[in-house]
Amino acid sequence: MIIGTCIVYLEAPWVESLKEKRMVVKSIIDKSKHKFNISIAEVENQDMHKSIAVGFACVTNEVSHANSIIDNVINFIGKNTDADILDTVIEIL
């Protein structure tokens, strides 16, 4: 069993409140969850309204498949939000 995990750090400079941030995060999570078979949630920086950290995980039987899923999710997030991706942390277990 191979577990692929990733944290995507994003910045949303136009967001002025936690309520606006929640709408952006909810959109990212809902779209990603429906498109891919992953578990996804906001994992850090929950009280900082311009900073978003979304973590997700996938389970598969091949390392290359886990890497492919992670790359596809990162690209999908980048294309489906106005927030800028600052960094990603990937771990394959």
What order do the helices and strands come in, and which of them pair?
Blueprint: E1 2-11, H1 18-35, E2 39-44, E3 51-60, H2 63-79, E4 84-92
Antiparallel strand pairs: 1-3, 1-4, 2-3
Describe the protein's architecture and organization:
The protein is α+β, with helices and mostly antiparallel strands. The protein is 38% helix and 38% strand. The chain contains 2 helices and 4 strands, in the order E-H-E-E-H-E. It has a 4-stranded antiparallel β-sheet with strand order 2-3-1-4, with helices on one face. The protein is elongated and about 40 Å long.
Low-pLDDT segments, ≥5 res: none
* Largest beta-sheet characterization: 4 strands, antiparallel
* Strand portion: 35-45%
| SSE ordering | EHEEHE
How much helix, percentage-wise, in residues? 25-40%
Number of beta strands: 4
Could you give the distance between the termini?
9 Å
Q: What is the residue-mean pLDDT, rounded to a whole number?
A: 93
Number of helices: 2
Q: Record the strand order, biggest sheet.
A: 2-3-1-4
Rg: 13 Å
* Large-scale geometry: elongated
Helix/sheet category: alpha+beta
